[in-house]
Specification:
The protein is mainly α. The protein is built from 19 helices and no strands. Helix 5 packs across helix 17, helix 10 packs antiparallel against helix 18 and helix 13 packs across helix 14. The chain starts with a helix and ends in a 5-residue tail after the last helix. It is found in: Cell inner membrane.
């Protein structure tokens, strides 16, 4: 039974993140090259969709924790995203594109928090390896993204990104029905005894700390890398297939590393690992900032796997050990919501920088944010308890 559930989770992450990989790396290039939008317009779409998503996404977690219907909410999220993708493909005006982007962001932002809540609970109870499960998602992302990149060179972006995204979402929905059922009566009663408030969560210093670190690192990386396709194609004058190769170079090491990530983190300690990751980010974005060589850009991207392990295995482990289990779904969802608003701010700012400056400047600003994060990490003692325990939940 445990193996069956593990396979279900792996299949879901593989298909769903594959769907994300067919769309997210290419959507800004599509908006620039196919629709004809400028940097500010693209940045505004990212900002508005993220801001609206931020106001809605906590509802996913609160409703999930109240009802324990994580699986049902997951299916609503998937179905809603499927509808919005279909509308997005038909959008012909800028206001309609904004509406579809907002709707898609609102729907899709519920998927990963609900899935992570169910998956981490399963791993915690069965001793499963979340990193190994999540690695299959990275593999799906890589393969699907590369396939779409090569198709885009032959047929353009319009058809492949929307058709692939919708097709894979449609497959993900039935897979979600194979997940373990939500908590039984005894588990719900236990959660009632551990009842915690939303206000208490916001007052949790450890939770706020990891959220700030995520904004200064992961959010900046995600926001800046949403312009990586523009940088490769427009600034470095590469082909669209280079986006596929970038995905391959970043994600293949990620797939392999996630399987052993928690062992590495526990061996060297959370604090040392986070410091190592941020140093690698500084080196990576430093090269991005000053090199005009496409292959140097691709080569240094290999360290991306360290950051992914931090935001998935590292951050979720830290959160699980820092918050009341009765509000775990809310904690994960709020975490994603805060990252979403961070992406909105940085995404819009980077769009303006891209339009009035250049893409090199985006990576320079990212490097500065990482330096701030490094200083905070060196001085903090928030990891001390977790490093002493050497106890992880995945």
């Amino acid at each position: 039974m445990k193996n069956r559930f593990s396979l279900s989770f792996k299949a879901f992450y593989f298909i769903y993140l594959g769907a994300v990989g067919t769309f997210m790396p290419y959507v800004n290039v599509y908006l620039e090259k196919s629709v004809g939008l400028n940097g500010s317009q693209i940045g505004l779409i990212a900002a508005l969709s993220s801001v609206v998503g931020f106001t809605v996404i906590p509802i996913w977690g609160v409703v999930g924790d109240k009802t324990r219907k994580y699986n049902a909410l997951l299916r609503v999220s998937l179905a809603g995203a499927l509808v919005m993708v279909a509308l997005y493909h038909k959008a012909a005006t800028y206001p309609m594109i904004i509406f579809c982007a907002i709707g898609l962001e609102t729907m899709r932002l519920g998927t990963i928090p609900m899935t992570d809540t169910v998956t981490t609970k399963y791993c915690h109870e069965s001793g499963g390896n979340y990193g190994a499960i999540r690695a299959m998602g990275s593999l799906g992302y890589m393969l699907a993204s590369m396939a779409v990149g090569f198709l885009a060179d032959k047929f353009g972006l319009d058809g492949p990104i929307f058709a692939s995204y919708a097709f894979l979402l449609a497959i993900a929905i039935p897979i979600s029905f194979t997940f373990p059922k939500n908590g039984n009566k005894e588990e719900r009663e236990e959660d009632k005894l551990q009842k915690s408030s939303f206000k208490e969560l916001l007052a949790n210093k450890n939770y706020i700390f990891i959220l700030c670190i995520a904004i200064l690192t992961t959010v900046v990386v995600d926001s800046a890398m949403s312009y990586a396709g523009n940088h490769l194609v427009s600034t470095l004058h590469g082909t669209k297939s280079l986006i596929s190769w970038m995905t391959f170079i970043t994600v293949l090491p990620e797939v392999l590393f996630l399987m052993v990530a928690i062992k590495v983190i526990n061996k060297i300690g959370f604090k040392k690992y986070y410091i190592l990751v941020v140093i690698s980010m500084i080196v990576r974005f430093g090269v991005y900032s000053f090199s005009n060589n496409q292959y140097a850009f691709l080569a240094v991207s290999v360290v991306h796997c360290l950051g992914v392990a931090m935001v998935t295995v590292g951050n979720l482990t830290y959160i699980r050990n820092s918050v009341n289990s009765a509000v775990l779904g809310t904690a994960i969802t709020l975490f994603n919501a805060a990252m979403s608003i961070g992406r909105a701010i940085f995404g819009y700012a980077f769009g303006i920088v891209y339009q009035y400056g250049n893409s090199y400047m985006i990576y320079m600003l990212g490097t500065a944010a990482f330096v701030v994060a490094l200083i905070i990490l060196i001085r903090t003692n928030h990891f001390d308890k977790l490093d002493v325990k050497k106890g992880h939940v995945f």
